[in-house]
Each structure stands twice: as C-alpha cells, then as structure tokens.
Design a protein that fits this description.
By secondary structure, this protein is mainly β. The chain folds into 2 domains: 159 residues, Immunoglobulins (Immunoglobulin-like), CATH 2.60.40.10; 100 residues, Sandwich (Immunoglobulin-like), CATH 2.60.40. The protein has no helices and 20 strands.
C-alpha cells in the first residue's frame, strides 16, 4: 500500500452529509466538496460536480482519484486508488477527465459510481480537482500527473458510496473513566465504536446524577460522524466542581437510526 500524503486535519470530518457548501481556492471553485452515492449493487448513479475557473487566464482542470483512511484521532492519510479495504475508487468514472475553461467560465462534470453485483458495503474515496499547467520541453514528464501537466492548485472532493439496501447501523460505547487534575477538575472519557456498515451521525451526552438528591445534569451533545470499522475517543470536562457526595455518571450514545440508546455508567464518590 503506497501512501500519497498525510494531513493532520481532514475536511470530511466537518460534515459527512451531501452539502452545497462551496470551497474556494485561489484559482478554482468546486461544489459540492462531498458527494454521497446510494447506488444498489449492480447499478450505477451519476452526480454532477461544478467547477469554475477563478483565475484571470485560461486553465485546464484534471480529476484524479485516490483512497483515504482516518484514524481515531481524526488524522487522515491518502493512498493510491484501490489499495485500501473500503475503497470505491475503481468504481468511479469522471467525465470528461479534463476540462479547459476561460476566466470565470464554469462546467458541470459527471461523476459516476458503478457498483458491482456482489458488494453492498459502505465504501469511500476522494476525487482531487486539480488546476493543471501544461509543461513543455525537458520538464514535460511528471510522475504524478499524465499528459505533461503540473499541478498549481487542488481541491479534494470526498466520495461516499452506501447502498440504500444496506441498513446495518450499529454503534456502541466502550469504557468510561474519570480523570481528576490538581485543581479538582473532572474529565470523563469514553470510546465510540462503529460496529455496523453505515456511517453513523453520532451524538454523545454525559449525565451526572447526585444519588442523594436526585439532581441531574446533562451536557450538550458532542456531535461527529463515524465511519464503519472506526472508533473515536470522546472527552467531557465538567464546567463546575462537584459538591461532596456520591454520583452516577453516564455516557449516552444516540446515532439516530434506532429507538434504543447505547449507554455506559460509572459510580463516582466525591470526598
């Protein structure tokens, strides 16, 4: 498996749902920056990608497809197309594969997902929209870009494919621990695990209940998406000190696709 590039922050973690958000670079504009396909096995689906030349000169844009993986700290690594287990890169066709636009001219490009008959799992990839400048002479050969082009600007479009027939949503919580610092600030940590085969839109709440008075506090939700076979550590620090007493602390996971909530509990004795 060959790594292409490593990033500490990944734009797909902001929102996983299909969005009309426009990401602007100095020389090009691309929308949307995330595309969600839902083609069933043995079928195809086409979505359109809007590209506009924002430069003051004519530009050519090419489209390259890669894989990516994200760890539980949100760090993302890009790989060669078709080299990771949940890649759909080889199912994607971009047409046309190159567009040439005059200043302020735009074009709609077709991105087609062709799903094989025997794979209904959730997959993902990325399409890079790249502003390319033609090379001439001895410098015309580029190991990463064909047709003698060099890249001057690039925007990543995250691609997700999950068939409508796939309804396997399953998430859980693992472990709940408490950390108390020197100033008596209390932080609670749990891990959210995606055990299913769909992208989960997670909300994690923390509740603190005083066992003597029955007073209860519930935090604001911590919201994030979580890919299949991925996990994420969640931390929550109480804003105020707890008075002496015995408490029950719970972490609750709501991923919106079932009436049941996942929860885990910890007993705390504040002295």
């Amino acid at each position: 498996m060959k790594t292409i590039k490593h990033f500490s922050t990944f734009i797909a973690t902001v929102v996983f749902l299909l969005s009309g958000f426009v990401l602007e670079a100095q020389q090009l504009e691309v929308s949307p920056t995330q595309m969600a396909f839902s083609a069933n096995t043995g079928s195809s689906q086409t979505l359109q990608l809007y590209v506009r030349n924002k430069a003051q000169t004519e530009q050519s844009f090419i489209f390259t497809i890669s894989d990516w993986l994200m760890d539980n700290e949100g760090k993302t690594t890009y790989f060669d197309a078709g080299t990771t287990g949940r890649s759909c890169a080889e199912w994607i066709t971009v047409s046309p594969s190159l567009v040439t636009l005059q200043p302020n001219e735009s074009a709609n490009v077709n991105v087609t997902m062709l799903v094989p008959n025997d794979d209904a799992s959730t997959k993902w990839a990325v399409v890079f929209v790249e502003s390319a400048v033609e090379r001439t002479g001895a410098t015309a050969v580029d190991k990463q870009v064909s047709m003698g082009m060099r890249i001057s600007a690039r925007i990543a479009v995250t691609i997700f494919q999950s068939p409508k027939s796939n309804t396997f949503y399953k998430g859980t919580l693992e472990g709940l621990s408490e950390k108390v610092d020197a100033e008596n600030n209390r932080t609670y940590e749990t891990t959210v695990i995606n055990l299913g085969d769909k992208i989960l839109n997670c909300k994690v709440y923390f509740t603190v209940s005083n066992l003597a008075t029955a007073e209860e506090f519930t935090s604001e939700p911590i919201e994030f998406p979580l890919l299949p076979e991925n996990n994420k550590k969640i931390e929550y620090t109480l804003d105020e000190k707890l008075p002496k007493g015995k408490y029950s602390v719970a972490a609750i996971l709501d991923y919106g696709n079932t009436d049941e909530l996942e929860g885990i509990q910890l007993d705390v004795d504040v002295k």
